[in-house]
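Team,

Forwarding the record for the chain on the shared tracking sheet. I've put the sequence and predicted structure together so nobody has to dig through attachments.
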Amino acid sequence: MLQKGGGIMKDIVKFQLGEKKYVCISVTSNCGRPFDITDAKYILKKGDEGEASGKCDIKNNSDTETILSALIQPMAKSTYKLEYTYDIPPEKLMKTVRVQVE
């Protein structure tokens, strides 16, 4: 069993309008066992509407910790949801981070 974590970033990330930057999450094993993330995607949503999506960069820090990174550029002053979906076979897991654009 694996635990999704916010070890790199908080669950709320602040942007200034026009900024383009990486938002990262840490995925760690809660039982100390090695794992592999075979696929990771993101979607940036304003309300229920998707504004941007793509594949995450996957960086294995160790056998028990992986960093997922999404490069985003929100297009309006608003509160967004950045939804990560990633596969650790046979599981499919999700993590949501709020993005506040000022």
